[in-house]
# Entry
Amino acid sequence: MAPSKTGERLIYLPLGGAGEIGMNAYVYGYGMPGKERLILVDLGVAFPDMDGSPGVDLIMADISWLTARLDRLEAIFITHGHEDHLGGLPHLWSQLKKPVYARAFTATLGRMKMEEAGLARDAIRTVKPRPEVITAGPFEVQFVPVSHSIPESAALVIDTPAGRIVHSGDFKLDRNPIVGEAWDDAAFEAIAAERPIKALMCDSTNVFSPLPGRSESTLGVPLSELIAASSGMVVATTFASNVARLKTLAEAGRAAGRTICLLGRAMKKMVLAGEESGVLQGFPRHIGPEDAQEVPRKNLMLIVTGSQGERRAASAQLARGKYLGLEMREGDTFLFSSKTIPGNEREVSKVVNALSEKGVTIVDDSNGKYHVSGHANRPDLEHVHRLLLPDMLLPMHGEHRHLREHAKLAKDSGIASLVATNGMMIDLTGDAPKVVDRIEAGRTYLDGTALIGAMDGVVRDRIRMALNGHVTVTLIVDEDGEALGEPWVDTMGLPTKGRGGRELSEVLEADLGAFIAGAGRKVMGDDDKLEEALKRTVRQVAMTEIGKKPEVIVVISRLSAE
Amino acid sequence: MAPSKTGERLIYLPLGGAGEIGMNAYVYGYGMPGKERLILVDLGVAFPDMDGSPGVDLIMADISWLTARLDRLEAIFITHGHEDHLGGLPHLWSQLKKPVYARAFTATLGRMKMEEAGLARDAIRTVKPRPEVITAGPFEVQFVPVSHSIPESAALVIDTPAGRIVHSGDFKLDRNPIVGEAWDDAAFEAIAAERPIKALMCDSTNVFSPLPGRSESTLGVPLSELIAASSGMVVATTFASNVARLKTLAEAGRAAGRTICLLGRAMKKMVLAGEESGVLQGFPRHIGPEDAQEVPRKNLMLIVTGSQGERRAASAQLARGKYLGLEMREGDTFLFSSKTIPGNEREVSKVVNALSEKGVTIVDDSNGKYHVSGHANRPDLEHVHRLLLPDMLLPMHGEHRHLREHAKLAKDSGIASLVATNGMMIDLTGDAPKVVDRIEAGRTYLDGTALIGAMDGVVRDRIRMALNGHVTVTLIVDEDGEALGEPWVDTMGLPTKGRGGRELSEVLEADLGAFIAGAGRKVMGDDDKLEEALKRTVRQVAMTEIGKKPEVIVVISRLSAE
# Structure
């Protein structure tokens, strides 16, 4: 366990996921400092919001540290198929072009994504669980099945010359998960017995949840009872990727004598991927929306996308009106078999209130009966710490407060720990983790089809336009430096009337005209000075008229003598 | 109780607050249809967000229905001093110019607001609690003290020729509220005994909370224990207007041997208003931030604004760094003696994570020990229904789902009810509420210093710019309809590079130039056609280059022959 005599070292560098819940991307390296051979674990996305990233489609870790060291990158490993672990692949893979390893279900989802993006399906290679070993430079990697809220989630056992690492991925301790493999204490005991665990990189999502997590299998009975007690149509929503939940819901519906119909592209895709990869067997027979219209409401159950209130998903569509010929009515029941992810409350609440207006009975998870989390709670984390007895623990998959609490929990059990956030390079070679470098860890936005940096100023300008509105000033100046006609003003996103009911654009034009009439040759002859002066005038006048300082574009066209 | 033989009627018309939590504004009317004399109860604000109302300062009910009937409006009554009941007054009062009635503490706050807005302080008249009666046309109004999370909250007893109404205002059943009057069953029993209650308009905020509400007085002991057990500086945040909580916190701090310092403008204003109006007595001695710097951290407690993560409030400032010479450090404790209002999770989480980075211990209300709600829970509502035994109940102060649940609760007890949302005019004259009209119930935005309608398109354009970015195209056309030079493009909030790394604005200019070169006289001679064609070209090219369709302003300047 002593530092390598050769001077080689083992490093850990989170690029995403350590400091937020989302966009997971973790680098491991082994070798001489600055020459380490590298692997990347996960390449996920986070989701944008109007507050911080309006207009953006997806948020990913900035991988420029990696792309500057492509010759040292051996491979990419994906722990499971959730968007925050897999979703960056189709957008960033062509900058990396390294082999991607994943288990069958994850690989199936990954290939679907690669194909949609016009990339090579065969970049993704299917791996069997441990004992299969993938050798990637100095790393030997095994996938160990863990239970989570998507099939075939895996922890990674990463063997290096400096010791064995367990990278937990996302997991919970579910001994009866309905679909996929149960959590297996013995498997992890064997892993630790085989070779001591140098470092555990561990999911921190639920470190603040004080009670042991509950099994997926606890939901079947309450769900069946709820559905059996409902009179009209029943609609249930959950995360599409929670295939076990889809099955639990569908079986509960069937048990209550209902015909099942799946709505939403993601839902159908997941069931397809589950069947294709073999993880999903015996999913109850289900019908399409057209056939569903023929089924009496009291015999029908829809399982739909949109548990987070997403505007274009099936839940929101059903809340607004008819969707694919189906419509909710008074006496129907809508079930959220899901939790609202912090930040999505407003969108979910819109769906709930729209359903309430239709007279629909809404059942959510407030009583804890219809949803269980996919992450290990605090006592479950402690259990895993004890099972693996790692020399050190690096908390990941959490906001700063989660990482800090998890590090504290580890230290309280005598395990060396450290809060390593995105961009902190940690040397794991010694007995305790040590910060050896800090790199610029930014965010990359997928914006339409363009990839832009979070700090490029593009989104900052959008936010400013949203807050302050926009004014365009155009002015033509002739060859003598005299204004040709009056300045012209266009506004967007601003009140049309100023103080006393005058037209804002007219007031602006008049005041700009007055300024220009009085401006000397020095200002009129210098584009930069003139632009600055016109911008200042617009802001001052707007402040007086409407109490706001808009963003201003000034276009000065100079006519040259012909 | 029968309909008036004379044909006169009693109406209820919520303009705000019935369909959302915020911007309360309720109209009552009595008289011949279309000639009812009117009173307004409350005139509050709601708060904007980036998703729906970027750049907006405050949201208020659209009062144009009232301003079109000013000759019929008698008076305005304000139940209590919270922003969602009082906050619209300084912005809308000058359109109404009617006397405003409120209890002393509320009136003090209202006068501060009027003064800041440059309006007459004496528009607000102080009313004593029942039995004092304000006569306003056919209405006789009494203020009945209720417990809530601000001093001197009041329910209104509104007597009309058609019967007695109780308008609950915001309330909870607190028999030991620390500051201000306790909830008084006997007072309400007497009100119902004096004259039967025709209609109860009732707070619905906590209708989904199944357990009886808890008293403010339950917080003192846990808070004292928490503070006594803390080693470094203690900082506690709550709503500034919750004067009882300020006192509870300050007393708990004093009991633990700490010196108290209040931070934040709103906090000091509230304590001042409390002392000025006489509701707040014996508030512990407290010092300013300059003196606080001299107090050892372990003997200091700050009580600060910003429980909702507001960027400019003291909590967020302390999370970011030094504020007024005070700074949080490792080992300090930060307490949220508040709940996060749905929709504010992201902002609060930013504060929490920034404090976590400083090593501060964060204590929130997740264990239910350090905060109690100011609204009546479901069993409390049922208790009030039983106390007053109204003929009918109109739920207010809630989103649609709250109103619907509350109406259901009332109907289950045999009370006639109806979900009346903003803009629904309800005739209360008969035995059950009856919808008699629906008016356009919109929202007015305070935007800088301008008042604009929510549907004016101003905010829609801002949202579009934030989502899609903005392009300005300028083109000069000579007297022959020929382009003079090339079109000029400015972009804002858009990626600078398109496909293959070409400059987006250059590609746009080239493609617009090519279009213009090929455009016939018919297009070049017609501003509307030309503008439309240039916009279309920009959108098509941008879609190809960056996968987005921006907002476009086209400015065509035509030079006339001189």
